[in-house]
Amino acid sequence: MYFTYIYRELRRRHRQALLTALGLAVGVGLVVAVTAYAGGVGKAQDAVLHSLYGVGTDVTVTQTAKLSQGGPPSFQMNPGSQSQQGKAFSRAAIRSAPGRQSLAATKVTQIASLSGVKQAVGGLTLTSMNVSGKFAQAASSGAAPGSQGSGSSSSGGSSSSPTQSAPTASQAPINVSSFSLSGVDVTQTGLGPLSSTQLATGRIFTSTEATTRVAVLSQSYAKQNKYAVGSGIKISSKKYLVIGLVTSSAGSTSTSDVYIPLQLAQTISGNSGKVNEIYVKASTASDIAKVKSEIKSALPKATVTTASDLASQVSGSLKSASQLASTLGKWLAVAALVAAFAVACLLTVAAVSRRVREFGTLKALGWRSRRVVGQVMGESVVQGVVGGILGVLIGVAGATAIAHFSPVLKATVSQTGAAGGPGGQAPPGMAAAMGQAAQTVAVHLTAPVSLQLVALAVGLALAGGVLAGAFGGWRASRLRPADALRRVD
Q: Is 196 helix (H, G, I), strand (E, B) or coil?
């Protein structure tokens, strides 16, 4: 009888019931869409940290200072003899990444022995610079015929010989190319530079290839320079066999262009027995803060970075989207939900007011106030369920639209490093190449709708229905049969 009466009443007032349910659905749907959007931004941030920081890496240790072997590589652009003037030349040099100072490899063992540290691996981040072109061709230029030099007189009284200018160098265009290079500890490839990548084709290093000239390339760099598994790449005048291609999980370029065994990287860069980056994995997530503090105590001059520290340095459109999701989106969803609840309550109270004669008659027939309240509450709960279902559909449609129409978001983590050096000014184009010390990752925004989010949406709609029913029931319980029966609709 109870449910039958609810069904009949909702069917008789189906327009008003649908309007109340739709009001709840719009508010709940907006909450679902905004929450899914925020979740997508969170996953995008994880993808950025995955690509820039490394899977399973909790802490990285670096030291910002100039290496003992100097900063940027210096290249001799002047010919050694007159016979070399105008002839082609090619120069190559490998140096540590800008702003990175080498650390003794024994620091890796020291950090690995700290409390809360599960694993520590050393790495070497380098830059290979190649400069090619032609030597300067010296040329002497004198005063043009008929021109007057600064030392000649315009009058015929006194004259002096024209001044000869000093020889000037005619410099041909210089081609500058570079690629990033990482030394990998082949005995622990699960942590370190390669941990932020996924194997696309071929294979990665084995533990027996510490001194073998093999290389793993990022897929984008290999495609750009037409390398493939089995081909050779020249590094520091030596040929390395390409054994694999990798890509980051975010679908963008990986952290470095080329990976080689750590021992070979140390040798060709003059950093034997040294590293310039230490990757640390904590025993548990709760130990990360303690591990960071212990490393800072053990290495006071080092820069200790956690994933949360790196997240605060991320800039670009992804950061803007994150700020939008965490501020405007959250308050917009709350405002929409409050408005939906208010509309549902007002519509329910208005409906109760229009049913004064009906409830008065029911009370005259023996219905108690709690039964009348239960009737109103039951109708509101059904409207809340319908609103929740519609809200989930609206939210899923909104989340799908966000994922489909959202542009590709980009995030950039800048690193400190100077392009200049004590050797003087770099040739044109070289400064830009050496100053390229930022990693940009592009990610596609998604808006996942989980079962927990669906349950939240239905729960919010039910809460709105219960709230509206409570207000409507309170209004109905205050009706007196005598007053109600005196009204004529």
A: helix
List, for residues 41-70, the tens digit of each pLDDT value.
Answer: 767 666 665 555 555 567 888 887 544 444
Give CA–CA dist 74/24, Å, rounded: 69
Residue 276 · residue 100 · CB < 8 Å? yes
CA distances from 90 to 28, 318, 420 (A): 66, 41, 21
Tell me how far apart the alpha carbons of residues 278 and 57 are, in angstroms, rounded to a whole number: 10
Q: Which helix (H) or strand (E) holds 371?
A: helix 369-405
- The DSSP annotation for 264-311 comes to HHHHHTT-TTEESEEEEEESSGGGHHHHHHHHHHH-TTSEEEEHHHHH
Contacts with 374 (C-beta within 8 Å, 6 or more apart), sequence order: 2, 473
Handedness of CA 332, 347, 452, 284 (dihedral sign): positive
159-198 residue pLDDT tens: 444 444 444 444 556 777 788 899 999 999 888 888 878 8
Beta-bridge partner residues of 95: 127
284-306 per-position pLDDT tens digit: 878 888 999 999 998 888 888 88
